[in-house]
Amino acid sequence: VQFVESGGGLVQPGGSLRLSCSASGLSLDSFAVIWFRQAPGKEREGVLCIEHSGYIIYYDNSAKDRFTLARDNAKNTVFLQMNTLTAEDTAVYYCAADSTTAQAMVRVSPRYWGQGTQVTVSS
């Protein structure tokens, strides 16, 4: 099983980015997929998760009106669309997956992880 993340980079405040989490060796549509982020000097935190049903759970209220997730099952990929980015969104973003609930994904480390992609919001 392999996860590959892409789409990170440098963006100005107020800008947008779309991160991709692509998998090989398993079908992502059968799993819940969560995005974590870890800012410098801070602990890793869950941002949002899409369950197998398609329901999206937000762990971070600041992301609720700005971030969303979408599946492309044909590409075996989950996309994280991030809009109206601020400096506080600067972090390494990780996708992870497991066959469990969104609540469990932040209590027990998921089985499958991507390598992380850097997002930097700066003018």
Summarize the structure in short.
This protein is mainly beta. The chain has 1 helix and 11 strands.
Structure notes:
- This protein has 123 residues and is mainly beta.
- Helices cover 3% and strands 48% of the residues.
- It contains one helix and eleven strands, in the order βββββββββαββ.
- Strands 2, 4, 5, 6, 9, 10 and 11 form a seven-stranded mixed sheet that branches.
- A hairpin with a 4-residue loop joins strand 7 and strand 8.
- The longest helix has 4 residues, at 102-105.
- The mean pLDDT is 94.
Determine the number of helices (DSSP H or I, runs of at least 4 residues).
Answer: 1
SSE run: EEEEEEEEEHEE
**Average pLDDT metric:** 94
Q: Based on helices, strands and strand pairing, what is the structural class?
A: mainly beta
- Principal-axes geometry comes out as globular
- Gyration radius, in Å: 13 Å
Q: For the terminal residues, how far apart are their CA atoms?
A: 37 Å
What's the story with the biggest beta sheet?
Answer: 7 strands, mixed
**Which oligomeric form is depicted?**
single chain
Instruction: Report helical residue fraction.
Output: under 10%
Number of strands: 11
Low-confidence stretches: none
* Percentage of β-strand residues: over 45%
